[in-house]
Each structure stands twice: as structure tokens, then as C-alpha cells.
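Task: complex structure prediction.
Instruction: return C-alpha cells for all chains below.
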Amino acid sequence: AQSVTQPDIHITVSEGASLELRCNYSYGATPYLFWYVQSPGQGLQLLLKYFSGDTLVQGIKGFEAEFKRSQSSFNLRKPSVHWSDAAEYFCAVFHTGGNKLTFGTGTQLKVEL
Amino acid sequence: DGGITQSPKYLFRKEGQNVTLSCEQNLNHDAMYWYRQDPGQGLRLIYYSQIVNDFQKGDIAEGYSVSREKKESFPLTVTSAQKNPTAFYLCASSLTHLELSTDTQYFGPGTRLTVL
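Output:
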């Protein structure tokens, strides 16, 4: 069965430091991968997505993610975190067989000033 | 402004009562979805609809019902059969829901339901 694992439940970084949020997926075919961000009490906003092509994907708000097939990973990165980046981040995989998105359990990011 | 609206933002109900959550979109999207979010569990799919007058069960449909009489509207009813209805409910839509589609899903702001 398809699944998405986000191994870090909580991460704390200092403002200005670099960030990497981990995402591992289990899927038999070529995955379509997404990262979403959720501010408290709000809906989800799409940060970036990977369908095919270049394995390094650029998104909004200065985020990027790299698809590594050999490691079944799609980690999210940002070179310098801002206090406004504090939120919960969700990785998701779209699988055509079930025609739906499967979400990870999320990583809560805290930014220390 | 195009987007997805959900109302109300907060909803309180007594145990045993049915309650209906509203979801409206003006994006002209064919497909609409309902998710439930609980702390530490990510999002789980309740129901989805590919087109008007059609809908399919997701992973956790028991105790819920939906209708899709209009393209722009996809209301969710939480029935008294749902054993643990207190949660944050998110509605989403995408342009199409074809088998090979990779259209992005756009989310509404959510409704927090608390059953007392």
C-alpha cells in the first residue's frame, strides 16, 4: 500500500538557519509528490510539487525539494528560515491507481528568534 | 476572488445530532474532496466527487454522507453514527479527477467541529 512517512514530528530551528524536513514514500510506480504548509487553524497551501523532469523543484516562499528515487525521499529545504515559516508541513503522494492523495502525519516547525 | 469557502469556521453540536458542513468553490473545478484532520494523524479522505451527482467513499466514510447536486457545492453531513466526530474538516477541489490527472488540490480554510 502507498504510504508517506515524515519521521520528525517536531523541529525547532533558529531564524536564519537552514531547514530540511524529511519525507519518505512507499509507492510502486513513479510518484507524484507534493509539499503543503498549514498555519494554525487554516487550510493547506501548496508549496511545491514534483511530477517528472528535474529532480530539484523550486516552490513558493523560497522553498525547494529534491526527489531522490534511490532513497524514496522528497525532502523539503530552505536555506534561511524566517519566523513566519513556523507552521505545520505535510508531504503527500498522489497515486493514480487509487486516484487520491495520501498525506504524511506532518512536521511541526518552530522558529526561535 | 476565486477560491474555496467553508462555513462555519467553528461549529458546536450536542452528541447525537446530525450536522452539515458547507463547502463552496468558484474555481469551476470538477472534483471536490472532504478530509478529516486529527492531531498527529495527517489528513484522511472521507469522500470525494469527480463530477456532479457522483461521489465515492474515501478511507473513512462511515458515519458521514455527502451530496453533489451542483458543481460548486459539496456539503458534508456528520451523522450521529460517527463515533468520534470532533475534528478539523477540510474541503478541497481540483480541476479534474481523471485517472491520470495530477491536478493540484486547493484547500479551503476548514471547519472545526466540536461535539459536546
